[in-house]
User: Fold this.
Amino acid sequence: MKAVVKSRPEPGVEVKDVPVPRVAEDEVLIKVKAAAICGSDLGIYKYTPAYSGMRLPVVMGHEFAGEIVETGKLVERYAAGDRVLSESVKACGGCGFCRMGMSNLCDGSTLFGIHADGGFAEYVAVPHKLLHRIPPGMSYEEAALVEPLSNAVHFVNDITPFRSRDLVVVQGCGPIGLFSAQLFRLGGAKVVISGLGVDGVRLGIAEKLGFEAVNIDGVDLVKHVMDLTGGKGADVAFVAVGAPPAVKQAMSLVKKRGAITVVGIFGSDVPVDMTRLVRRELTVMGAYDAKPVNFPTSISLISEGKVNVRDVLTHRFSLDDAEEAFRVALDRTGGKVEFTP
Ligand SMILES: [Zn+2]
Ligand SMILES: [Zn+2]
Assistant:
């Protein structure tokens, strides 16, 4: 079968012919219908230090949906023909975090597309306990975005302390920024979303979704926020980009006792003004991946039309055109980019 493979410890990916995976007793074989490129896939493409521990070679992709074509003999709840999507973390199930429902922090987890063969392929083998059914009326293209939306649900609803009528500044207008902004708005917050000039298309999507979108190449974001708040600062900054200047900006634009949630993956250490954090009693939180419980929530949010993932998806490619697909994602000239094998 055809697959997008990371095989060498250097920038780039390859489209290769690899064997169709064999299913274990507790797995199903999925014919992939849609698989989305994630920000982490861009780090893998570039082979940044954050991914130096990954398995090579590996079939990439952890955001995917498709149709079951085969089931292992211990699988009873699913059958060939079922439409499903998968969680991205293969957790151990036994560690303290797994037992508390936080498999995103599992001590012994493997991730599709990093340690285990993933969904940028014609077929992928998945343990049945990671599956969720795709409701009638939801397309495979939308279903492949349940995983990243689940991340956003965890970041916003589980981790970030915010209240109705708070001003939340979402820094970064990639798919996670665009999903998270919608979740903050659902929670009653007023949202400003920011990006750079190169993010023109994405800022346009933010506007289409009804947000105030600020191009910080032309506007001083901190000054803008101070103007909006009478000099007090925003209640929350949400850093959805792995750029060190965004963290500095977040520290400058939140109010005293403000909260900063950081979800970007950074290529290097980030210096922060700790004295400012101390004197203003700021709280900084990291948020990573999604918990299993976030998946049914995301499925409902899409089904009920409360979160619009469709307008965030802008590009579709065949596996053969992987290089072009990654180019669009790396250049940020689109929203979400999917393979439709
Ligand atoms: Zn992802
Ligand atoms: Zn575990």
Residues 170 and 193 are 5 Å apart (CA to CA). The chain has two domains: 2-150+290-339, 161-286.
